[in-house]
């Protein structure tokens, strides 16, 4: 089975790649493609999908916190 990837884009969306089922709280299925973007800024008119409205309006660059071997 192919592993699904969700990539946190700098100043933008969550980029989803792989075979996933996206459903709303009532269990209704959203139609998706093999690669799609989910809104992270809350500004999209196509929620839960990204429509690019975030450009110049949203600032977030998330990185994994690195843990030193001595701290484990």
SSE arrangement:
Elements: E1 5-8, E2 14-17, E3 22-23, E4 29-30, E5 35-38
Antiparallel strand pairs: 1-2, 2-5, 3-4
In words, what does this structure look like?
With 72 residues, the protein is mostly beta strands. The protein has no helices and 5 strands. It has strands spanning 5-8, 14-17, 22-23, 29-30, 35-38. The strands form 2 sheets. A 3-stranded antiparallel β-sheet has the order 1-2-5, with no helix packed on it. It is globular and about 45 Å long. The mean pLDDT is 94. One of its GO terms (cellular component) is cytoplasm. InterPro entries: FeS-contain_CDGSH-typ, MitoNEET_CISD. It comes from Lederbergia citrea. One of its GO terms (molecular function) is metal ion binding. Residues 25-60 form the Iron-binding zinc finger CDGSH type domain.
Summarize the model shown.
By secondary structure, the protein is mainly β. Helix content is 0%, strand content 22%. The strands form 2 sheets. Strands 1-2-5 form a 3-stranded antiparallel sheet, with no helix packed on it.
Distinctive features:
single chain, 72 residues, mainly beta, 3-stranded antiparallel beta sheet, two-stranded antiparallel sheet, globular, MitoNEET_CISD, 2 iron, 2 sulfur cluster binding
Count up the helices.
0
Distance between the termini: 32 Å
Strand order of the largest sheet: 1-2-5
Kindly report the average pLDDT value: 94
Q: Could you give the count of β-strands? A: 5
What would the principal axes of the Cα set say about the shape?
globular
Major β-sheet annotation: 3 strands, antiparallel
Residues in helices, as a percent range: under 10%
Question: Low-confidence segments, ≥5 residues, pLDDT <50?
Answer: none
Strand content: 15-25%
The helix/strand order is EEEEE
GO molecular function, one term: 2 iron, 2 sulfur cluster binding
Keywords: 2Fe-2S, Iron, Iron-sulfur, Metal-binding
Protein name: CDGSH iron-sulfur domain-containing protein
Organism: Lederbergia citrea
